[in-house]
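This part of the workshop introduces the protein records we will be handling. An example says more than a description, so a record of this kind follows.
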Amino acid sequence: MAKSKNHTGHNQIYKNHRNGIKKTRRPRKMSMAGMNCRFVRNQAFANRGMSKLTAEEKAEKLAAQKEAQKKVDEKRKAERQG
């Protein structure tokens, strides 16, 4: 008795290309699913606080944040080196 055919790809390429193979759309906003919930919650409060600031206060906060990030990066770099 002959074995029966398990699978064929016949006509599948044609069917896929009839409507065109499209790239998936990138989401406008990154999904928070699977993220640390404490971080997500804190981020929401931080964003709400930033919306109430004036332009000068906002610039001042961003400068302080960048400086703090530099310190963290330097610390990480020092840990990696030795």
User: Anything to note?
Assistant: The mean pLDDT is 91.
